[in-house]
Amino acid sequence: MEFRERLKFLRENYYVNGKKLTQTQLANILGYGYTAISNYESGRNEPSISDLKKIADFFNVSLDYLLCTTNDPTKVGEKNELYERLCCYTKTQQEYLLKIIDDIEKYKKSI
């Protein structure tokens, strides 16, 4: 499962007044433009780390769960803390740091 699928799953299983939460409703709740959630669910756009945290907080799940590194929505791990710390950096800095972290993880698996 990928983030886009996990987001859609969470949204479709969240009910407001007995009805599934729509993309537009979720966008409004989070303060996004009306197409933002549609773009996330289709894979056209990816949220920033601060937006990921906002989404995880709304659905009351961990970032690990939202990013599909675990199937346990309550699991809090090292990556969760890491993503929270990255929120203070610019998007370019976040992408650079995440690339370094991914490279380190790949290296650790190769040895």
What's the quick description here?
The chain has helices spanning about 5-10, 25-30, 35-40, 50-60, 65, 80-85, 90-110; strands spanning about 15, 20. With about 110 residues, it is mainly alpha-helical. The protein has one domain (about 5-110): 434 Repressor (Amino-terminal Domain), CATH 1.10.260.
If you had to describe this structure to a student in words, what would you say it looks like?
The chain is mostly helical and 111 residues long. The mean pLDDT is 83. The chain has a two-stranded antiparallel ribbon with strand order 1-2. The protein has helices spanning 3-12, 23-30, 36-42, 49-59, 63-66, 78-86, 91-110, and strands at residues 15-16, 19-20. It has one domain (3-110): lambda repressor-like DNA-binding domains (434 Repressor (Amino-terminal Domain), Orthogonal Bundle).
Number of helices: 7
**Fraction of helical residues:** 55-70%
Number of domains: 1
Please report the first level of CATH classification, the CATH class. Mainly Alpha
Count of distinct strands: 2
Q: Tell me the β content.
A: under 5%
CATH topology: 434 Repressor (Amino-terminal Domain)
Low-confidence stretches: none
Secondary-structure class: mainly alpha
The arrangement of helices and strands along the chain is HEEHHHHHH
Strand order across the largest sheet: 1-2
Spatial shape: globular
**The CATH fourth-level homologous superfamily:** lambda repressor-like DNA-binding domains
* Average pLDDT figure: 83
Radius of gyration: 15 Å
Taking the sheet with the most strands, its summary is: 2 strands, antiparallel
Distance between the termini: 27 Å
In CATH, the architecture is Orthogonal Bundle
